[in-house]
Amino acid sequence: MVRFFIFLLNYEVNELEVAASYGLSERYLNKGPISALKSITDSLKDGPVAIYDVMDDPRLQYAMEAKEEGIASILSVPIQVHGKILGALRVYTAEPCEFTLNDVNFVSALAQIAGMSIKMVRYTKGLMSSIEVLKSMREIQAQRKTRMTPYEGVPKSFSQEEYRKQQA
Fold first, then answer.
1. Would residue 87 be called left, alpha or beta, if left means φ above 0 and alpha means ψ between -120 and 50 degrees?
2. Domain for residue 141, yes or no?
3. What domain range includes position 92?
4. Percentage of residues in the chain with pLDDT exceeding 70?
5. How many domains does the chain have?
6. How far apart are CA 86 and CA 83, in angstroms?
7. What pTM did the predictor assign?
């Protein structure tokens, strides 16, 4: 059985936050904060990291919890766009697994697609915010156009002939 996690990196607290998961229990999802400095940090800096046995690897922050969840092996791949790390995609297997180059390439491709999608969503969200600001500015400008100019409402000057016609 294959399960996965998508983490996004929170630079303010240097932690990986769960963005999506499949096949993992709520207990495992809520096991505690995942430090970007303690939990398979090599995958964020150096690229994909494959762990054959979770109980025999010091790079794991929650090795006992992983074992209790039934996780035997992990493949961790960074999610990055234009050289900036956004997070990590991790694949978990129930049986010990020697990940092949094809496995690593496939998960890396998925991580790249996820990174581009995340970047596009953030970009689109920024555009939508900009559009809303521009709409509000246009509404304010429209309100200004309905106001009177300094010369509107000032009595008009009439010639004596026009004045007599209005009085009659």
1. left
2. no
3. 2-123
4. 88
5. 1
6. 9
7. 0.70
